[in-house]
């Protein structure tokens, strides 16, 4: 009868399952008999681990014929000490694998515990300094307080970058539910809040705003029947299936497609039918054609929805209006629908000005009353100021973020002052200036200070601050994270 294939254990390359009893009978050496006994126990208990070691290159010359990986026969043989040593090595490897399978527990110091109990949802890489291992991306980590008592769970980002959170706290329940149930509960709560905040005819809004909806690092925007998921890290990407199931259950309304837009990656379909290149959404009576999952953010600046409605209310029929940094025409459309006699849209990228024209056509605005301009606004404004009669009753200025780091903020503030200095000559006497900033760490007070200083240098005075606002109510923010209120919008009346 043919013998079974040889088992792959370092130090015993010629052993076989069928030959164990024969080998034992032929040997009278007690040590050898003990060795064969150990050999058989190792073979039976660690067969899967032997395959992992074979494929991992731990014992390159001891190759299991059942393994399909390629092994280099020219590599020198492994040094084998004894069967007992080999068994101990296998046991250590198995312990390592079991340790990876166990839930990771991280004990916090008193400072971190106080911050988390105070509502801060982030933990920094230093809390992992005493952890048995680094967490994997998307791993649910158990949190222990300073006394070692369970206090909740957190989601691991998967990267340990300075200044970036390593863990995002999901709940402080001592007996937390599984992540799938937690997702369902939080999504249901977020959907119910939007039903209260958003009028039924508006079909584009933010369904989940990360930390503000107790799902830190996760943003979900809705464009009609298309949902765009934008995780802030790889942590949520590891739970795509759970996200899809939760959204299909608690996303609200009819969902046709769910798109994932990973940070720094290409958008891809997670579930449903492949969406069209563009969809038409409605916002306070205005229509917009957007491309879900492409362009800036998730496809459209939903955070400015309420400010666009404010502009639509403020403009008077026949006003000459100017939209600077117009992008795809969000504010230009609001000005047109509000009744402006003429709208000028200016942006550096000439390719997107056709999108602005399309938005105005979609809303029935005559294109003869619209002037698209592709130009560097910092250069275009001084040239426009020298043109006779180039004055505007309503000016909207919504530049992109001028800094992303705290160290760059002073230069950003200088740029805001130069920009408002250039704006001074083009606003009519008694006209309105709507100025916005999405620069992180620039508060509304800072923006107002820079606007007043720049306009004063340009020879104009702010007579009244009419309105101050930020992102819409569908972008909630935790009180413990006020710096996440990144958007400021001011309506100023000029003498």
Question: Helix/strand/pairing class, anyone?
Answer: alpha/beta
Number of beta-strand segments: 19
CATH architecture of the largest domain: 3-Layer(aba) Sandwich
CATH topology of the largest domain: Rossmann fold
Terminal-residue CA separation:
105 Å
State which percent range the strand residues make up: 15-25%
| Average of per-residue pLDDT values | 85
Total domain count? 4
Spatial arrangement of strands, main beta sheet: 15-14-13-16-17-19-18
Q: What overall form do the CA principal axes indicate?
A: globular
- Number of distinct helices: 14
> Would you identify the regions where 5 or more consecutive residues have pLDDT less than 50?
1-36, 54-73, 75-81
**What is the highest CATH level, the class of the largest domain?**
Alpha Beta
CATH homologous superfamily label of the largest domain: Vaccinia Virus protein VP39
Largest sheet: 7 strands, mixed
Q: Roughly how many Å is the radius of gyration?
A: 32 Å
Helical fraction: 25-40%
Quick tags:
single chain, 495 residues, alpha/beta, Archaeosine Trna-guanine Transglycosylase, Chain: A, domain 4, Transcription Regulator spoIIAA, 4 domains, 7-stranded mixed β-sheet
Task: Kindly describe this structure.
The chain has four domains: 20-101, no CATH class; 105-171, Archaeosine Trna-guanine Transglycosylase, Chain: A, domain 4 (Roll), CATH 2.30.130.10; 180-281, 2-Layer Sandwich (Transcription Regulator spoIIAA); 301-494, Vaccinia Virus protein VP39 (Rossmann fold), CATH 3.40.50. It is built from 14 helices and 19 strands. The protein has helices at 20-26, 30-45, 47-56, 83-101, 110-117, 179-197, 234-237, 240-250, 305-314, 330-338, 353-362, 377-385, 409-423, 444-457; strands at 105-107, 122-123, 140-144, 150-156, 167-171, 204-209, 218-223, 226-231, 257-260, 268-272, 279-283, 286-290, 320-324, 342-347, 370-374, 392-397, 427-437, 462-469, 488-494. It has a seven-stranded mixed beta sheet with strand order 15-14-13-16-17-19-18, with helices on both faces. Strands 1-3-4-5-2 form a five-stranded mixed beta sheet, with no helix packed on it. Strand 14 (342-347), helix 11 (353-362) and strand 15 form a beta-alpha-beta unit. Helix 2 runs parallel beside helix 4, helix 6 (179-197) crosses helix 8 (240-250) and helix 12 runs parallel beside helix 13 (409-423). The chain is globular.
């Amino acid at each position: 009868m043919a013998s079974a294939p040889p088992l792959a254990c370092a130090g015993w390359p010629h052993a076989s399952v069928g030959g164990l009893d024969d080998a034992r009978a032929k040997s009278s050496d007690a040590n050898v008999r003990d060795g064969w006994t150990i050999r058989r126990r190792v073979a039976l208990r660690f067969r899967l681990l032997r395959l992992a070691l074979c494929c991992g290159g731990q014992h390159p010359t001891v190759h299991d014929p059942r393994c399909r990986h390629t092994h280099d026969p020219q590599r020198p043989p492994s040094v084998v000490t004894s069967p007992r040593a080999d068994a101990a090595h296998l046991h250590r490897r198995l312990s390592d694998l079991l340790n990876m399978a166990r839930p990771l527990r991280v004990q916090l110091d008193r400072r971190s515990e106080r911050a988390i109990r105070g509502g801060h949802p982030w933990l920094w890489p230093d809390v992992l300094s005493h952890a048995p291992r680094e967490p994997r991306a998307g791993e649910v980590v158990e949190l222990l307080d300073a006394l070692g008592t369970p206090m909740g769970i957190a989601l691991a980002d998967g990267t340990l970058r300075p200044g970036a959170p390593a863990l995002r706290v999901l709940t402080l329940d001592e007996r937390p539910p599984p992540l799938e149930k937690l997702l369902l509960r939080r999504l249901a709560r977020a959907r119910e809040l939007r039903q209260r905040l958003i009028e039924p005819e508006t079909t584009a809004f933010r369904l989940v705003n990360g930390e503000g909806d107790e799902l830190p690092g996760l943003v979900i925007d809705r464009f009609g029947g298309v949902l765009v998921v934008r995780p802030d890290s790889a942590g949520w990407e590891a739970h795509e299936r759970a996200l899809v199931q939760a959204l299909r259950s608690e996303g609200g309304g009819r969902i046709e497609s769910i798109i994932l837009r990973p940070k720094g990656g290409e958008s891809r379909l997670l579930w449903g039918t492949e969406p069209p290149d563009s969809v038409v959404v409605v916002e306070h009576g205005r229509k917009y054609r957007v491309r879900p999952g492409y362009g800036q953010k998730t496809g459209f600046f939903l955070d400015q929805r309420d400010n666009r409605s404010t502009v639509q209310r403020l403009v008077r029929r026949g006003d000459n209006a100017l939209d600077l940094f117009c992008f795809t025409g969000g504010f230009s459309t609001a000005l047109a629908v509000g009744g402006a006699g003429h709208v000028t849209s200016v942006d550096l990228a000439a390719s997107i000005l056709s999108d602005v024209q399309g938005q105005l056509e979609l809303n029935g605005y005559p294109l003869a009353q619209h002037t698209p301009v592709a130009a560097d606004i910092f250069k275009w404004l001084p040239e426009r100021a020298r043109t006779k009669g180039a004055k505007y009753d309503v000016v909207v200025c919504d530049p992109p973020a001028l800094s992303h780091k705290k160290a760059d903020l002073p230069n950003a503030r200088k740029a805001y002052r130069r920009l408002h200095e250039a704006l001074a000559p083009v606003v009519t006497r008694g006209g309105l200036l709507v100025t916005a900033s999405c620069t992180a760490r620039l508060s509304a007070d800072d923006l107002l200070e820079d606007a007043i200083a720049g306009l004063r240098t340009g020879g104009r005075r702010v007579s009244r601050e009419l309105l101050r606002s930020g992102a819409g109510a569908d972008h909630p923010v935790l009180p413990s994270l006020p710096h996440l209120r990144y958007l400021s919008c001011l309506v100023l009346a000029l003498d």
